[in-house]
Write a structure and sequence with these properties.
Enzyme class: hydrolase
Family: Belongs to the glycosyl hydrolase 32 family.
Structural class: mainly beta
Largest sheet: 6 strands, antiparallel
Shape: globular
Catalytic activity: Hydrolysis of terminal non-reducing beta-D-fructofuranoside residues in beta-D-fructofuranosides
EC number: 3.2.1.26
Oligomer: single chain
Keywords: Glycosidase, Hydrolase
Radius of gyration: 22 Å
Length: about 500
């Protein structure tokens, strides 16, 4: 393979010198992914001076492991055309030397305030790590300066797993929700919970309440909590670790889901109205974060990957990507609805197909990126095959109308994900394919699947047996993201 060095300018005076090759086989065309190295949790999702900013957990030194976390950074005017910026935060303080872990951002008085978890490891000791909460500020949306008086929360009784602060402001008070694991005295087991702090100045924080906690069925740790008001209710969104699989539920290593309820800002008490509900039914969906934009949309993004996977992209010098940003709403029965943001139309390319479709209909996506919109009868089975070359390049999507089941099958061990769903009048389905990912939105967005797959060549959409589609629209999707062709070492130069 012919390898050459090239420089990638990423804003300001910082540039990345990377060793590249000509292989972009799995790199997304319109999803955000790292320019190189490892990406996981979205962080600091915010809107600053008419641009969206998204930070993320980033290892610039390897695509094979999360390593010691930095904060990567990108910005966009429309959530699809992303510009990579210099690394926002390095693990360069005594309180974050083992990782600048996940956190959030708020914007006030033309300043961007960042809040994150500082991680310090103690190899061979018990516990073997400690986690504190810290703050930072940016006056231009690019350069970041950590608070002089960090850490801002350092609670011994909450150690060792105390992380992922999400901060917002209500009236004159700042609120921070964090994930935590605590020892239940009766069962002598670790249980997850979401804890709330308040502050008047973003520096001095006071414990306010436990928003909710596991009763044993919701795992030993709650990561990446988010808490917000939506359509008259409050939503506690989080990623629990340690939930056991149950039927078609909780099939991934870790989950992401939510509890809907009521919240009293006077007492800081959250009263749940629902059980825990899994938010997505695919293989790869974790560590969600939301923002409220200037249009008052609650927009969500998630890591489109899962821990302890070994996907082939890492051999190409990068790992991880984000989901399509999604607007959230709440149904009358307190279920979250996810819809792609309207800006996704800016990523559309050529119109490939329009009309009815039957068994044998085939549409080819040469660049492996497309949007497919389907309307079909609600009282008939539906089967769609998304296929390409390679062992990991095939996905089968199906609806069984007698059982009321929708299924995504990407093959291999543990390849099936399914859930119950019945359309109201017609079966509506939107499918987004992007080089190494597939996202499904059923109905109005009440059911979603987000999974990775790895087509080696052009992708073909084929309508299966006994399937009748009343209307099918297919668009290609343009290359809107920075495409990096790494396959070897990377280094950062200033």
């Amino acid at each position: 393979m012919n390898k050459t060095f090239r420089e990638v300018h990423c804003g300001g005076s910082t540039k990345f010198r990377v060793r590249g090759c000509s292989n972009d086989r799995f790199y997304p065309r319109y999803h955000l992914a790292p320019p190189f190295g490892w990406m996981n949790d979205p962080n600091g999702f915010s809107e600053y001076k008419n641009e969206f900013h998204l930070f993320y957990q980033f290892n610039p030194n390897s695509s094979h492991e999360p390593g010691i976390a930095h904060w990567g950074h990108a910005k966009s005017r429309d959530l699809f055309h992303w510009e990579h910026l210099p690394i926002a935060m390095y693990p360069d303080k005594w309180y974050d030397k083992s990782g600048v872990f996940s956190g959030s951002a708020i914007v006030e008085n033309d300043k961007m305030f960042l809040f994150y978890t500082g991680n310090v490891n103690f190899p061979g000791q018990i516990p073997d790590h400690e986690q504190i909460q810290a703050g930072a500020v940016s006056f231009d949306g690019v350069s970041v300066k950590k608070f002089k008086n960090n850490p801002i929360i350092n609670e011994t009784k909450l150690q060792p797993n105390f992380r992922d602060p999400k901060v917002w402001k209500h009236k004159s008070t700042y609120y921070m929700v964090c994930g935590n694991s605590f020892k239940d005295i009766e069962s002598n087991t670790d249980l997850g919970r979401a804890i709330l702090f308040t502050s008047k100045d973003m520096i001095n924080w006071n414990f306010a309440s436990v928003l909710d906690e596991s009763d044993g069925s919701l795992g030993y740790m709650w990561e990446c909590p988010d808490f917000f008001e939506l359509d008259g209710r409050f939503v506690l969104l989080f990623s629990p670790q340690g939930i056991k699989p149950f039927g078609n539920k909780y099939r991934n290593l870790y989950q992401t889901g939510y509890i809907v309820g009521d919240f009293d800002y006077n007492t800081n008490v959250f009263t749940p109205r629902t059980e825990f509900i899994e938010l997505d039914h695919g293989h790869d969906y974790y560590a969600t974060q939301t923002l409220l934009d200037k249009l008052k949309r609650r927009i969500l993004v998630a890591w489109l990957d899962m821990w302890e996977q070994s996907y082939p992209e890492r051999r190409d010098g990068w790992t991880g990507q984000m989901t399509i940003p999604r607007v959230l709403s709440l149904s009358k029965d307190n279920r979250l609805i996810q819809k792609p943001v309207k800006e996704i139309t800016l990523a559309r390319g050529r119109h490939l197909y329009s009309g009815r479709a039957y068994f044998g209909t085939v549409v080819t996506l040469v660049d492996k990126a497309g949007e497919i919109s389907i309307r079909a009868p609600k009282d008939k089975d539906l089967r769609l095959i998304i296929e390409s070359d390679g062992e990991l390049g095939k996905v089968i999507i199906s609806y069984d109308y007698k059982k009321g089941l929708v299924t995504l099958n990407r093959g291999g061990k543990d390849g099936i994900r399914r859930t119950k769903w019945r359309p109201q009048k017609k079966l509506y389905l939107k499918i987004y394919i992007d080089a190494s990912s597939i996202e499904l939105f059923y109905g109005d967005g009440e059911i979603t699947f987000s999974s990775r797959f790895f087509p080696e060549g052009a992708v073909k959409l084929r309508v299966g047996e006994k399937s009748e589609i009343e209307s099918m629209e297919v668009y290609t999707m343009k290359r809107t993201t920075f495409v990096n062709h790494d396959c070897d070492e990377t280094a950062v130069i200033n």
